[in-house]
Amino acid sequence: MSENETELFHQNKKAAENGEEVAMYNLATSYYNGKGTEKNLVKAFHWYQKAAGKGYFDAMNNLAICYTDGEGTEKNLEKAFYWYQKSAENGNQYGMNCLAKCYINGIGIEKNLEKAFYWYQKSAENGNQSGMNYLAMCYMSGTGTEENLVKAFYWYQKSAENGNQSGMNYLAICYKIGRGTENDLEKAFYWYQKAAENDPFIMNELAECYKNGEGTEKNLEKAFYWYQKSAENGNQFGMDNLAICYKNGEGTEKNLEKAFYWYQKSAENGYQFGMNNLAKCYKNGEGTEKNLEKAFYWYQKAAEKGYNEAMNNLAIPIKKENSEFVLKSMENGICYKNGEGTEKNLEKAFNWYQKAAVNGVVDAMVYLAMYYEYGLGTERNFIKAFYWYQEGAENGSGFGISKLAMCYKNGTGTEKNLEKAFYWYQKEAEKGYQYGMIKLAMCYEDGKGTEKNLEKAFYWYQKGAENGSQFGMNNLAMCYEYGKGTEKNLEKAFYWYQKGAEYGDGKAMNNLAICNKNGKGTEKNLEKAFYWYQKAAEKGYIDAMNSLAICYKNGEGTEKNLEKAFYWYQKAAEKDVYKRQEYGDGKAMNNLAICNKNGKGTEKNLEKAFYWYQKAAEKGYIDAMNSLAICYKNGEGTEKNLEKAFYWYQKAAEKGYIDAMNNLAICYENGEGTEKNLEKAFHLYQKAAENGDKEAQFNLGVCYEEGIGIEKDEVKASYWYQKAAQQGFSNAQYRLGFFYKIVKGVKEVLKNPFKIVEKESLSANKWIENALKCEKVKFISYKELKNVEPLDAGKFGEISKAIWTKTNSYVVCKKLFNSTYIKNDKLDAFTHELKMHMQLDYSERIIRCFGISLDPNTNDYLLIMQYANDGLNYLHYENILHRDLHSKNIVIHESNAKITDFGISKNQNNQTSAYIGNFGVVAYMGPERLKNSESPSPYTKSSDIYSFGVLMWEISSGHLPFKDNDNIVTLTVSIITGIREVTVPDTPEEYEKLYKKCWNQEPEKRPSINEILDEFERMGFGNNATSKLVEVLQMFAKQFVKWFVLRTEYELSYKAEKGTGAGTILEEEEEFEEFIGEILLIYNNKLFVSLLEKFRDIRDTESVSEDDESELTAKQKNK
Questions:
Q1: How many Å apart are CA 118 and CA 97, to the nearest integer?
Q2: Which residues pair with 906 in a beta bridge?
Q3: Angle between helical axes of 1086-1102 and 1062-1082 (0-180°, round to 10)
Q4: Which Pfam families is this protein grouped with (predicted)?
Q5: Is there a contact between 828 and 756 (Cβ–Cβ < 8 Å)?
Q6: At what angle do helices 941-957 and 1009-1018 cross, to 10 degrees?
Q7: Which of 703, 715, 766, 704 is nearest to 743 (CA)?
Q8: Alpha-carbon distance 509 to 547, whole Å?
Q9: Global pTM?
Q10: CA nearest neighbour of 998 among 934, 955, 1043
Q11: Are the beta carbons of 92 and 64 closer than 8 angstroms?
Q12: Least confident piece of the model among 209-213, 525-529, 562-566, 959-963
């Protein structure tokens, strides 16, 4: 207190006591402010009252303030109003302004906005800067007058220019948002800067300008400075924003402790934003220890202050991954829902959602809708859910829009309306939401809610993909793969599958694996296919788990591992169990059942197999339904139950499963699990047969043949037997033999399949006698043959083995039965073979005919022959058609394979020697040789090529062709209708193609023998197609043929000489064994192992008869 102030106080006191009103006012002000004396509000009030009574206007206004605030007297708003009015009416601008406040707020008088506007206007016009500011507010909000933004701007400007800081702030806002004037951020920044010096609130606004670069250059350091100034001057907004700077390291170093401090200061100063942010710090343990109770406390405080986000945060997740709320977010961080900081209470969570939603929080609207939809904290109510989804959607919530569309699509809480669903998906897509783009594309693709338009579907899938939607990438790839809405482009399909996979989409990973597996849009790569199946499986994609199991099962792209295959089948199956009925297809469950049934990768367990078949069947997997029925029928893994078997056959059949139709028909035919019904049985056989099931085709044939459920019809029976036979069904092939009258082109061959026409010969016996006389054929006395012993039955008669004493070597004797009957077909064939030998200049590749002998006991002729080996190329060079080439006509002589048996051979240049007939081994004969003998196809070299092709198959398989088919009629029909042997596993592709070309149904499409030899020279296996490898294969074939003949020789010599020949044969066996071992050492691959082991098995099982086994030595047994 200065001496001047004290002296002035005493002067005013003296004057006041003398009745001077100005001195009274000044004395009151000294007492009010404590200047020149101690502060004394009672005395201040006294002297204001005295001055007012004297008519001093300023004293009247201040006296009103004392009554308003209860300063120096009791609070009395009516008296306050009275004195404001007196002051105003006497022209005091401050009184006018205060009187307006009384009218606007109803202080001491009834609220009257028009009078408030009037007195603000009077105050402003009298130069009161505060009145100018308030008058602008009236114009801005239309309070007591019509809204007028231009006049509002005018009075804010007047107020600002007169130094009113609030006016400066509002003027800056007008410039910033363009209210009542054009938008001008530079001017807004100017007025914020002018007002900031003394106003903490405006300091905060100025900081915002620097932070966002509005009206000035962005400068985080200056923003931080002004936030700090604002905060230190007590502004709660500035405190909260300063905390954000420390939290994010904006304009200063990041400091979570200081961030927490200022959030706390802001919260303690009553700022709801600060309370909410402080709750987050406690929730996440940022800048302080994690404390869910305190987090809950501050969320609740903010909510009680009316802060809507805090209301929401009491229920919704504290952390959001993006602006679109997804259903799974409900599982994370919900205070009341999960009991974080308080007891779990869905009802309270629901209440807070409701409060926030009613207060306009869009996110809360969507969550409130979800609580109604799923019955969380309240009763389930789809109508209210729909209402709040609609509210959220109309307020711009992307997720709300999406959910509203789904409500319309599924009829949830409203009538189903696909057009409206389409409308809202379109709105969502146009707002840039990926999910809406994809859903809109699906509407266009399926024609739901709009016309089907694949081009637009493609467009929106592309937009979704380009905006980062994994699902969009996958579907866009599918458009390219199948040419939907765009041109087919496998490379682009592969590209987008790869993009989707890299973004983590399990379905895209699976499809990318399929591309790599099948070489679609990229090179085939089983290792990469395996990699992506594994990635997709690890993401939980069931189809990929199943495919990964198949990779392990078959060793595709990885090592074969049945245990891992079983593991992934099990994983897929167990995941499929928990999916809703409409999802998942049960495939993995079915595969797991198969593993348990067959003991693959796990112990065999029929009960578990049954369990998983049942699970897969209940899931709707058709294969499993049929397999489950079989389990019930046979009592596998469960009790036998024909009724349940019938039920599941029926279920599978109704879903179009062909095998089940046939099985169901059997049930009806036999009355198994249902009443016998032959008509239904016939109908089901017919359905399955028409769908290509060979067993059903055969059964349908039986129905027509025997009149089961239908009238007998042999023509239709034959038709269906033929259809089944063409698919290799052996029962049908056999049965078809009884219907030769119906089968076109087979009638005569079935009646007499071996009719022979020899155009040249009228008397075969006479021809032989003439040949002997002319010494065209050498006669060998029967006495020169010893140890004659039957070996096999040929087409002419008996084949024997004997020792020709003249050379002391083995010969083969072909005896013709009943040769006294001159027109016997077999005798004609016998003489024909003799003619062929006479025309040959013998090569080492052809069996030599030494001559002819006559058995004096039976009067039958015998051909005396050497062993002969493969000489087909030589025969064709000599224009001889062998026409009966098969493995038993290839023998070994002096380590050479040779061809024998020219009984039905033909000189191609001499058509008079055309021996048209069908002698030979049917399995090796081409279809053109087996057809109608009344209009026979001429023999060509291609006939031998066909036989050679069958022989190639025999070498690769180690089995005789059609070894299980001993019915000549059935076999003949099979060959004519195009049935061939099945390729054995691991046969080289080039080798397979070659023998299939050889046995082509059309003779003219078969290769020549030279082409075959060229192909053998070219042929190799794997990447190293060297001549050495080809040589090994040729050696192998040679050794195999050699062994094949030695087997026969061994049986003869063993029986004839009791061991004389056995030693030689055992040596050959050992040589062959050593050869196999060498091959396995040199060429350690699956092909050779498979082939050699097959041949070894055949040799071990066939080379020694059961009758002789007991006489073999221990060494022979081991062999």
A1: 10
A2: 881
A3: 160
A4: PK_Tyr_Ser-Thr (PF07714), Sel1 (PF08238)
A5: yes
A6: 30
A7: 715
A8: 12
A9: 0.40
A10: 955
A11: no
A12: 959-963
